[in-house]
Amino acid sequence: MVADDSTKAATAYQLACEGTALLWQGDFHNARQLLQAMGRRIDRKANPARPDATPAESFHLHRRARGHRARVLGKLLVLLEDDHSLTLRRAPDVRRACTEAYGPPRGGRAVSLTELLGVIGAHQWREKGVEVPALGDGVRVHPHYGVFSPVRGEYVDLVARAPLPSAAGGGLAFDLGTGTGVLAAVLARRGLSHVVATDISPRALACARENAGRLGLADRVEVGGPALYPEGRAHLVVCNPPWLPARPTSTVEQGVYDPDGTMLHGFLHGLADHLRPGGEGWLVLSDLAEHLGLRTREALLTAITTAGLCVTGRLDTSPHHPRARDTTDPLHQARAAEVTSLWRLIPD
Fold it and tell me: At 46, is the pLDDT very low, low, confident or very high (cuts 50, 70, 90)?
């Protein structure tokens, strides 16, 4: 159905819940206000957290509620013209942001307003960049649309301060699942002469190459994929896999959710065959999944042992992001107890 400035939030909400898509043809800012009003209705009708729920039940209920919210709000659509422009009143120029996200224009398309706002936000992050103190004062990396942004700096700091294995000085390193390439850049700045960064996402590979060039590290950081491991053996292999063994619902969530811990187990079981003598593997992993009842510490240690590895050291840090202090978050108890660790692994 067509929606415009005369469409009431209650009507839009009811139609969206019934599965009807609404193609907006009114003022752009009014569309954003309608989206916010629909969101408030969803939040008011959301089931309250169950005090007797286990952490795992709370997590799955939270994911279900977020999925419902995304489905309903995703029914409000806007039309991009053949050149990625919007013809709505008071609409911003979104052509460059859409080209970065979708590629060169190939005809008009209808997209959800929530997705378009995400595209606009991603473009702003790409322009502004994210400051990474571990790379130096004022140094930034620039995430692309659909690539997980290193806004949580504690895992970067762990890689920046962990003692390098003696065999790694001036040697070769692998950065598996590189994303923006931030960890590959940290390793190169720490003195590794060559870093091979891999990822399964074409967006991430393009993003990592661009950031390596911006940082003047293109001659030392080689970006490739889509295999998890590159050919050969390295003195140091670093992997920061998605922390939660659950199914992602969007491209960017692939940096957080990994069904069945596929990447984690792929890293562990391939590590011994890709290390040079005296080398180490660094697993950077949060224990949030343990606090949520999605994985146990025993299961992690068993997976390490089964892969023919042993732990030679571990560095821990606590999260600094605001959600760890947000008592209104239904997962607050787990987030407040979270610890991120760098596990130093060697062949057994």
Answer: confident
- Specify whether the CB–CB gap between 315 and 342 falls below 8 A: yes
The DSSP line for 268-315 is HHHHGGGEEEEEEEEEEEESHHHHTTSS-HHHHHHHHHHTTEEEEEEE
Cis-peptide, bond into residue 248, ω within 30° of zero: no
Please say if the pLDDT value at position 261 is more than 70. yes
Contact 61, 50 (CB under 8 A): yes
Evaluate the omega torsion of the peptide bond into residue 226 and state whether it is cis, within 30 degrees of 0: yes
100 token code pair: 């970065």
The tokens for 179 are: 């994303």
Residue 252 main-chain phi, psi, to 5 deg? -70, -25
The predicted-structure confidence for 75-105, as pLDDT tens digits, reads as follows: 999 999 999 999 999 999 999 999 999 999 9
- What is the structure's pLDDT at 255? 77
Q: How far is CA 40 from CA 30, 34, 69, in A?
A: 15, 10, 10
Question: Apex CA 344: angle with CA 140 and CA 228, to 5°?
Answer: 65
Map residue 267 onto helix, strand or coil.
Answer: helix
Indicate whether this model's pTM tops 0.85. yes
Q: Rg (Cα) of the chain, in Å, rounded? A: 22
- Residue 27 and residue 89: Cα distance in Å, rounded? 5
The beta-strand segments (E) located in the chain are: 2-3, 22-24, 76-80, 109-112, 130-131, 140-141, 172-176, 194-198, 221-224, 234-239, 275-286, 309-317, 340-347
* Angle between helices 55-73 and 9-17 in degrees, nearest 10: 110
- Give, for 330, the enclosing helix (H) or strand (E): none
**Across residues 146-159, what is the average pLDDT?**
91
- AA letter at 156: V
At 347, phi and psi to the nearest 5? -60, 140
Which residues face 223 on adjacent strands?
197
Type and span of the H or E element at 31: helix 28-45
Tens-digit pLDDT profile for residues 297-321: 999 999 999 999 999 999 999 887 6
